[in-house]
Amino acid sequence: MAIIVQKYGGSSVGTPEKIKNVAKSVVNKVKSGNKLVVVVSAMGDTTDNLIALAKKITDNPDKRELDALLSTGEMKSCALLAMAIKALGYDAVSYTAYQIRIKTSGQYGKSLIDDIDEDKIKKALDKGKVVIAAGFQGINHEGDVTTLGRGGSDTTAVAIAVKLNGTCEIYTDVDGIYSVDPREYKDAKKLDEIDYEEMLELSSLGAQVMHSRSIELAQKYNIPVYVGLSNSDIRGTIIREVDDMNLESKPVTGLATSDEDVAITVRNIDNDINIISNLFEKVADKKINVDMISQTAPIDNKVNVSFTIPKDDLKECLDILKSYSNNEVKIDIDEDITKFSIVGIGMKTTSGVVAKMFKLFRENDIAVKMITTSEIRITCAINQKDKIKTINVIAREFNL
Amino acid sequence: MAIIVQKYGGSSVGTPEKIKNVAKSVVNKVKSGNKLVVVVSAMGDTTDNLIALAKKITDNPDKRELDALLSTGEMKSCALLAMAIKALGYDAVSYTAYQIRIKTSGQYGKSLIDDIDEDKIKKALDKGKVVIAAGFQGINHEGDVTTLGRGGSDTTAVAIAVKLNGTCEIYTDVDGIYSVDPREYKDAKKLDEIDYEEMLELSSLGAQVMHSRSIELAQKYNIPVYVGLSNSDIRGTIIREVDDMNLESKPVTGLATSDEDVAITVRNIDNDINIISNLFEKVADKKINVDMISQTAPIDNKVNVSFTIPKDDLKECLDILKSYSNNEVKIDIDEDITKFSIVGIGMKTTSGVVAKMFKLFRENDIAVKMITTSEIRITCAINQKDKIKTINVIAREFNL
């Protein structure tokens, strides 16, 4: 008997009617002879509404208590789904993080799952019950309720699949993973499958279909993850380890863009590794996430250092940089950037992808402001006005 | 340092603004040098709204899952109150039933508290934290979430006060316990104090200020319980063991009425203890709560048996009685009754209360349909039209 761990997102359980539909889907899989664990998110906008409620109490809610508050959203939808399945004549039981000991560590609001007590889940499955587990939440070593961060229910589902050696199905409001965001490129192709690493790169680049940590976890334990619509015949995407052989003909799998960053350039700073690393340490201390970094060759032992940060952190970052600016050293800000990335594990074995990309940029008059690369990804900062043109040129060339 | 266990009802924490007011009251008591544990109910209509949500899933929600669902209401208000106290610069921590191991047994929806792990609460108090505990909920021996029934947060508060050897304050939307419901008798007197047993009788008779089990528990461990308004100088009522000495001059402490019952009479049934006890067993099997029972003297070895039951259970009860009715035995129903009770531990030592009451009934033309008595209570079934007159006559005579 196969064990399937399904996860339903907030929009899939947004109303009592939708919860009843999920119950029907679940029961259908049970009828086909599977053992099911179902992880649910909070209904619809519940999490946002709870945050708004906390903000009415205080502008800066205590983080332990905020996690305790938010965790109630998933408990509600769990209990309701269990009721709905029982009302269809099938046995079901809801479990909170406490009940199946989803142990976490790390900070409130972004805790990491250390372990799950799979015995209680297995016993319930062996008794023929559908197990409904609260996503997004855990219990830390002090016994406090914690949450895993936005999208954390994906990670709960994958973690349970790991512990039960099952397969994982993530049901969401998109019908799969696309090579390019379909809202930005209408001919975007849906992928039948994608490698864990590619998916990880795309997730961290703004393709917000899945919680990045859930993909890392699936990759680590080699758990295949299906992503798609529930109650639908439309085939979604399987995230798994993809055989390199299939990929030689397609070096680039996907493309992602983000307009959420700003580029900062520190001009004419001394080319002294202590000064420059000290600058980045101060930025890191404020938990500001620096992404692309580039440095020009020194002239008169002075260099220009550019880097991108999230727009939201600009003010805080400029406060840090103030102490570095003087008559010589100037701080430039460029808010007009789009981060444009192409991803593909085929790049490992296919040479010339960068060259091809630059040729296309040159032919189409697309200016590149910064560039960084990893083994399976190339990211450029371009002007925002060039975004759509770039997507079209690159997607067409690489058949995305 | 005194330990005070306070309980705030749903209307006291109905909005973020009200929660902030409760936080201020709590902080004031902390400033005066007390250690505080605060038990909260769910905000406003939360519990009713959650029940309505469950009913949208199924007409008959699974009881385990309904308890799991309802328990989230108190978790929410707990976390919000802890945030509000922290925002005022005082340390606080919220605990669910799971975290302080409020162990329960019995049925879902009306579980009984077996034990509470007071160590975790004491440790937090010793660190200078205000402890906010979720009322109304517990965990049974299978590790399931349970609830204690409507008003169960009172019992949570008293139970914690017992374990910590503290005093208990119940804050609600009435300013104390009255000898008569002030909505029915405008001259009703508020009581400075009332004995546990009197309060128990009044509670079970329809004076719904407090959860009956909380009073039983307070009585068993001799914990005084204050009932009143929060944030108010108006003095409430203390429920405690009242010295009989004070009471000789006042045999009757309070009066309660209920229109929620119906009287059933089975006429001309054989005066056979087996038949009659079998009838009541069948009624009890359906969990129908029989209150007043009276039986006429036998004529030709036939008797009339009358008893009252809650109106809600009438249909089910009649289904049972069908098998007893025939050409001889008839079932009469009287929906026009008010249960009228007077309560006072002074009755134990004062004779003639019944006689005085009957004299007043006779003089005022009040018909008594049934009567039952206990050591500290007399209950009559009267016609509903006589209710207000009876309240006035009796309240005036006994100075209530």
From TrEMBL, chains A, B:
One GO cellular component term noted in the UniProt record for this chain: cytosol
ACT domain ranges (all copies): 264-340
Keyword Nucleotide-binding tagged: yes
Gene3D superfamilies to which the protein is assigned, alphabetical: Acetylglutamate kinase-like, VC0802-like
UniProt GO MF annotations: aspartate kinase activity; ATP binding
PROSITE patterns recorded: ACT, ASPARTOKINASE
Keyword annotations: Amino-acid biosynthesis, ATP-binding, Diaminopimelate biosynthesis, Kinase, Lysine biosynthesis, Nucleotide-binding, Transferase
GO biological process, one term: lysine biosynthetic process via diaminopimelate
Pfam family, any one: ACT_9
Residues involved in ATP binding: K7, Y8, G9, G10, T172, D173, Y178, R183
Enzyme class name: transferase
Pathway: Amino-acid biosynthesis; L-lysine biosynthesis via DAP pathway; (S)-tetrahydrodipicolinate from L-aspartate: step 1/4; Amino-acid biosynthesis; L-threonine biosynthesis; L-threonine from L-aspartate: step 1/5; Amino-acid biosynthesis; L-methionine biosynthesis via de novo pathway; L-homoserine from L-aspartate: step 1/3
The EC number(s) this enzyme carries: 2.7.2.4
Catalysed reaction equations from the record: L-aspartate + ATP = 4-phospho-L-aspartate + ADP
Residues that hold substrate according to the record: T47, E74
Function: Catalyzes the phosphorylation of the beta-carboxyl group of aspartic acid with ATP to yield 4-phospho-L-aspartate, which is involved in the branched biosynthetic pathway leading to the biosynthesis of amino acids threonine, isoleucine and methionine.
Entry similarity comment: Belongs to the aspartokinase family.
Name this polypeptide is given: Aspartokinase
Organism: Clostridium luticellarii
Source lineage: Bacteria, Bacillati, Bacillota, Clostridia, Eubacteriales
